[in-house]
Structure formats: structure tokens, C-alpha cells
């Protein structure tokens, strides 16, 4: 979706230190300005976007300051003992309220245009018009598995008070929960999530309150959910990958479009369409610290002090263009029937209007049905039965839904085969259910001939596969791949035998070699070798022999290959070195063996020199280090040298004997190799 934004100012222009850009020091309650409190200098910066002359800096002793949502010249100040509502431009107090006892306040912000909320040991609202402070809710303890909690957002909608809390778990990962208090019944719910808000949906003359919230999964995905606060109906979830390290800083509703907007510290903007269960996302910038929404604007402040206003009109036009695909009257009619649990009438509306027949509509019926027993009044059953009565299924999602229903009920698929939407996934499902005939028909309708041929092989009709192979293009590798993935590769041996039984090995060479290669690719080497040996006994062809050599990786197969098959000696020797070193000497090169022997002699001579030099170096090092008893060193060196020379001479004699034996062995092997070559 498009982003329409305007950079307004940078906080540095007003002499505001960047360290003041945080929730405790800066108030973005107004779309016309902001205020920033410097606790060290005990000063307050008041900035008015529309009236630059009214910008000011004043000295205060307050612990908190929030700017009024509509009147940026009005500031509400708070200490632990009192509150004062002032007009900064006129520099006078409009209202003062003293607490009966010192107050601990964790959260302090406006909840509407008249009231500011104070949350500490209890939840209180202060009315700046009447000067009254009243308790409106109870503060409950956080769940035991969440630590370092902080209230990030508060909202009141009629009798519902919503507190969003963020913290970390025992693994120091971001987590949180929403606390939903019903002020009339004095009940409370705590639901795991990292962002939440209450929105409203228009249903005829009724206003339906909807709770929308987002969870952050372990694999770093935002999972969006919505709940009807009246009926407790849960809508289908939607999921979207989040940027690494994402923390929600604002979550608000676009009521007219049944959507919510989530803004994160990494600059991600996620729009959750509640009815369509879709998430649209875009990226603005990095390192956002604060965000607030006012009317058609979203105001954000970055870590570098840049203050930017997003115009939400572009986003609203984008959502409007999506919703225009379905006539508003039709959508309202369906929503009203669905919200009132008139599922049969709602299903009829969908069946008669294809534009409503979407994945999102199916998910709504599926979600509603999951809270009901699987009987005639189940919302999902009503929907699927209505579609089957009016027409065939229209997409793979509906296929999967019908299959799941039939499997749960223990019913056969066969009476419904003509009702399914034809898709590759359906063909694969039939194949896995061993409905090979139905699977073949599905693939044929989709022009997937290779998969259809695999079905015929499973039906023990390999003779019919030849007809498919004559159709171009035919992908034999696709047929084998499908069979290996979903079926049994053993069935393909019957197919290969059917091809080979024609004994047309020259005319069909390309096809036969391709079949052999598929057996090799699917690790059926024994089958490949067996088939090739049968061919080579019938005809003399180097292409088949080369394929046979490549397929032989087992010692027994290789010995059979050498003893019974007239294969080129150079190919055999190369292949044996890789797969069967034990037999390598039979086909090795005499000159190559002599080079190896010579290298071993050189290596031995070098080792002898190194050992002599090493022993001499040890004693030279002792003398250089001014070892005191030089006579003792000389005596030690003499004995060591005698022992070393004797030891080395013994090693030389042993190596000579080994080399002599190797030379005799090479001569014998050379004679044997010459004999084998002459026999070949």
C-alpha cells in the first residue's frame, strides 16, 4: 500500500536533546504540537506546529507533562502530590488538584479530550473540566512468566477498558499481554499479545465491538486475531513476517474500513484487514521511538529526532479500492446475516454472488463452525452443503474443507468426486488415497501427462504409458519424481520391463537410457545394473556399457563387470579407482605405480635428514643457552648421536626390505596385468 508522509521538523531545531525522545519525557498527545520534559534541567519545551510564535520553554518541577489533544497551549502537569492544568501561552494555572496521599503513577496520558488516565496501584481518571479524580478500574498483577512489564497503550470503549502491557519472558524475548476489564461486570481477561485495540463494525443499525490484537510468534511472525466482544466469535487469523527486533509502538483502528494499523520501532507498518483476513505491509524508516494517531494522521518520531506525519488518506483509498470489488450493500447484507448467526441465509448469499466466494469467507464459516458440534446446524457444514447444492466447489481451499468434513464423518469420497475443483493438489491427494483412476483423470484434465502416466503404472497398466511417452513434450523425469515422492518406485520396474520386452534397444536407446538414469537418480542402482546387463547380453553398444560402468559402485557388481562384460579398459580402470580401490592394481598403470614408489623413497630420505638435523639442533641450542656443564652436554650429545644413528640405520634396513618386497610385487602385478590385457 502507498505511504504518504511529510517531514515536519527535527527536535534539534528547538534545542531538544535526543536523549529526551522517549515515552517518559515526550508527549505526542496532540497532532498540532508536542512537549518534551528535561528532568535534569527541570525545564519543559512546548512546540506548536501551527503557531511558531507560541513555542516556549519553561521551568517546572513536575514529574510528568502531557499536552492536550486539541489545545497544544494547554499542559497537564503531575507530581506525586498534585496535578495542575496550565495554559503555557498565558502562563497561568487553569486547575489544580491535590492528592490525598502521595501517588505512585506508572502510566499517565490522555484517554479522551476531557480525561487523563493515571495508572499506579489503581486506575483513575482525572477530568480537566470538572477537576474530579475518580477510580474507574483495578490494577491486576502481571502473569508470572512475564517480567519487566510496561504499559504501552490504554483505550476505553464504552464499558471495556483495555491495557496493553509489554515485557520479556525468561529467555529475554519480547512478549506481552492485554488486560481487558469490563467496568460494568467487574470482570477481567488477560490474553497473550504484544499489541491490541478495540474497534467497531457497523452492522445495520448495530455497532459491534471488535477486539483486535497481534501476537509475536517464536519464529518472528506477527499473528493478527480479532474477537467479537458480544458473541465471543473469533475470526480467522492472519500472519505476516516481522522485521528482526520488531517491538510495537502503536496499534490503532481504521473503523470505517474494518482494519487496524500496527507501527513498530523498526519502521514497519502493518495493516490488518479484519474481514478479509489479510495483512498488508510497508516499510518507512528505522529506529522509531514514538507514534500517535489523530484523525487522518499518524505522527512518528525517530531516534534521530525527525518528526514525520503520515497522511492516512492514501491508505484509506487503498483499502477502499479493495473493498470496492464487493458491492457495499452486498457485503453489509452478508455481514448482518453472519453476525446474527443466520448461517444458512448467509451461505445462500455467497452461493449466488461469486465475488463473495473467497478464502476469507470460507475461513469465517470455518472459524464459526469450530465452536459448534459437527451436526446439521454447524456453520461450516451449512456453507459447504449450500455450495454443493448450487454448484461445484471453486478452489482448493473448499476441496480441503470438504475432504476434512468427510474424513471426520467417516464417509466415502466417491459420491462427491464430480463436485471437487480440479487441481494438482487434488490429484496428489487422490494418489495418496490410492484412488489412482480418479487421480489419473484429474491430471489428464490439467494436461499433466507425466503424473497421469505414473497413475497408470500404479494401476498395473504400464503398456498404456507408451502412448503418453509419444506425446510431446513428455517429461519422463517428472513421472519418476512423482512416483518416488507419492508412490512406489518398485512399480516402475514393471514399466521398464514392458519397454525392454520389445527388444528395440537401438531405436529406443534415448528413452531406455533416460529410464536407466532415473533409476540411478532414485538410488535404484541394482535395478539399473540388472537391466543394463540384460541389454548388453543382447547387443554390443558402448553407450550402454558406459552407463553400466557408471551404475556399478558395488564390488560384486564390478567383478561381474570385469569378468563377463567386454568394457573399454581405460573406462574400467578409472571407475575402479573411485569405487573399488581393492581391485585397482588389476587395472592400474605400471609406470604410475613406479612413480608412487619413487616418491616414497624420496620422502623416506627427506625424513632421515630431518631427524638427524633435529637431534643436532637440540644440543646446539643447549650450548647457545650457556648451559654450564659443557663437558656433560658433549657426552650426552655423543651418546644420543650414536643411539640415533643406530636407530636410523635399523629403520633404513627395514625400509629397504619393504621396498624390495614392493618391487617384487609390482613385477608380479605387471605380468598379471599384461596377461589380463592380452586376454581382453
TrEMBL record:
Signal peptide: none
A cellular component annotation (GO) from this entry: clathrin complex
Coiled coil regions in record: 638-672
Keywords noted in UniProt: Coiled coil
GO biological process, one term: intracellular protein transport
Superkingdom of this protein's organism: Eukaryota
InterPro entries recorded: ARM-type_fold, Clathrin_H-chain_N
Gene3D superfamilies attached to this UniProt entry: Clathrin heavy-chain terminal domain
A molecular function GO annotation: clathrin light chain binding
Protein name listed in UniProt: Clathrin heavy chain
UniProt lineage: Eukaryota, Metamonada, Diplomonadida, Hexamitidae, Hexamitinae
Amino acid at each position: 500500500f502507498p505511504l504518504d508522509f511529510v517531514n515536519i521538523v527535527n527536535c534539534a531545531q528547538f534545542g531538544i536533546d535526543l536523549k529526551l525522545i522517549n515515552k517518559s519525557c515526550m508527549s505526542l498527545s496532540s497532532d498540532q504540537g508536542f512537549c518534551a520534559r528535561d528532568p535534569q534541567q527541570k525545564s519543559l519545551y512546548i512546540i506548536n506546529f501551527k503557531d511558531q510564535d507560541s513555542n516556549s520553554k519553561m521551568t517546572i518541577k513536575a514529574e510528568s507533562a502531557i499536552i492536550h489533544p486539541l489545545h497544544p497551549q494547554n499542559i497537564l502537569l503531575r507530581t506525586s502530590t498534585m496535578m495542575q492544568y496550565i495554559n503555557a501561552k498565558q502562563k497561568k494555572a487553569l486547575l489544580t488538584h491535590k492528592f490525598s496521599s502521595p501517588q505512585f503513577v506508572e502510566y499517565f496520558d490522555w484517554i479522551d479530550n476531557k480525561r487523563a488516565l493515571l495508572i499506579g496501584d489503581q486506575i483513575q481518571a482525572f477530568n480537566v473540566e470538572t477537576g474530579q479524580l475518580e477510580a474507574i478500574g483495578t490494577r491486576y498483577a502481571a502473569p508470572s512468566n512475564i517480567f519487566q512489564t510496561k504499559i504501552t497503550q490504554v483505550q476505553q470503549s464504552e464499558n471495556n477498558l483495555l491495557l496493553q502491557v509489554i515485557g520479556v519472558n525468561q529467555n529475554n524475548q519480547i512478549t506481552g499481554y492485554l488486560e481487558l476489564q469490563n467496568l460494568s461486570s467487574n470482570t477481567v481477561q488477560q490474553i497473550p499479545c504484544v499489541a491490541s485495540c478495540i474497534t467497531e463494525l457497523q452492522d445495520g443499525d448495530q455497532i459491534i465491538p471488535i477486539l483486535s490484537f497481534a501476537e509475536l510468534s517464536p519464529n518472528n511472525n506477527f499473528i493478527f486475531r480479532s474477537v467479537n466482544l458480544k458473541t465471543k466469535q473469533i475470526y480467522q487469523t492472519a500472519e505476516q513476517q516481522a522485521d528482526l527486533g520488531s517491538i510495537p509502538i502503536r496499534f490503532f483502528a481504521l473503523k470505517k474500513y474494518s482494519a487496524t494499523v500496527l507501527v513498530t520501532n523498526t519502521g514497519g507498518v502493518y495493516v490488518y484487514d479484519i474481514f478479509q483476513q489479510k495483512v498488508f505491509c510497508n516499510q518507512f524508516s528505522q529506529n522509531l521511538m514514538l507514534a500517535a494517531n489523530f484523525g487522518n494522521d499518524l505522527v512518528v518520531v525517530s531516534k534521530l529526532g525527525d518528526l514525520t506525519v503520515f497522511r492516512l488518506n492514501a491508505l484509506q483509498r487503498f483499502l477502499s479500492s479493495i473493498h470496492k470489488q464487493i458491492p457495499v450493500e452486498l457485503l453489509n447484507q452478508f455481514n448482518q446475516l453472519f453476525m446474527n448467526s443466520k448461517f444458512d441465509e448467509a451461505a445462500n448469499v455467497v452461493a449466488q454472488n461469486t465475488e463473495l466466494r473467497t478464502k476469507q469467507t470460507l475461513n469465517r464459516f470455518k472459524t464459526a463452525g469450530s465452536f459448534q458440534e459437527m451436526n446439521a446446524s454447524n456453520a461450516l457444514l451449512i456453507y459447504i452443503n449450500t455450495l454443493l447444492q448450487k454448484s461445484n466447489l471453486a478452489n482448493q481451499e473448499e476441496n480441503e474443507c470438504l475432504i476434512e468434513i468427510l474424513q471426520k464423518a467417516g464417509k466415502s469420497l466417491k459420491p462427491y468426486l464430480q463436485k471437487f475443483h480440479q487441481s494438482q493438489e487434488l490429484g496428489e491427494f487422490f494418489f495418496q488415497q490410492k484412488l489412482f483412476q480418479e487421480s489419473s483423470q484429474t491430471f489428464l484434465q490439467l494436461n499433466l501427462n507425466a503424473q497421469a502416466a505414473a497413475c497408470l503404472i500404479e494401476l498395473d497398466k504400464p503398456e498404456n504409458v507408451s502412448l503418453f511417452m509419444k506425446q510431446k513434450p513428455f517429461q519422463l523425469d517428472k513421472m519418476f519424481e512423482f512416483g518416488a515422492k507419492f508412490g512406489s518406485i518398485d512399480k516402475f520396474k514393471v514399466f521398464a520391463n514392458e519397454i525392454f520386452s520389445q527388444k528395440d534397444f537401438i531405436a529406443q536407446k534415448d528413452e531406455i537410457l533416460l529410464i536407466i538414469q532415473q533409476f540411478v537418480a532414485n538410488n535404484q542402482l541394482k535395478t539399473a545394473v540388472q537391466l543394463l546387463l540384460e541389454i548388453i547380453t543382447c547387443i554390443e553398444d558402448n553407450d550402454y556399457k558406459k552407463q553400466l560402468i557408471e551404475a556399478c559402485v558395488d564390488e560384486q557388481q564390478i567383478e561381474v563387470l570385469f569378468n563377463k562384460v567386454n568394457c573399454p579398459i581405460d573406462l574400467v580402470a578409472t571407475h575402479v579407482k573411485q569405487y573399488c580401490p581393492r581391485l585397482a592394481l588389476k587395472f592400474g598403470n605400471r609406470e604410475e605405480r613406479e612413480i608412487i614408489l619413487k616418491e616414497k623413497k624420496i620422502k623416506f630420505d627427506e625424513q632421515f635428514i630431518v631427524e638427524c638435523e633435529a637431534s643436532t639442533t637440540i644440543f646446539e641450542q643447549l650450548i647457545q643457552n650457556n648451559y654450564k656443564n659443557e663437558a656433560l652436554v658433549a657426552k650426552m650429545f655423543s651418546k644420543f648421536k650414536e643411539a640415533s644413528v643406530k636407530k636410523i640405520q635399523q629403520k633404513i634396513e627395514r625400509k629397504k626390505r619393504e621396498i624390495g618386497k614392493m618391487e617384487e610385487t609390482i613385477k608380479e602385478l605387471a605380468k598379471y596385468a599384461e596377461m589380463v590385457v592380452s586376454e581382453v
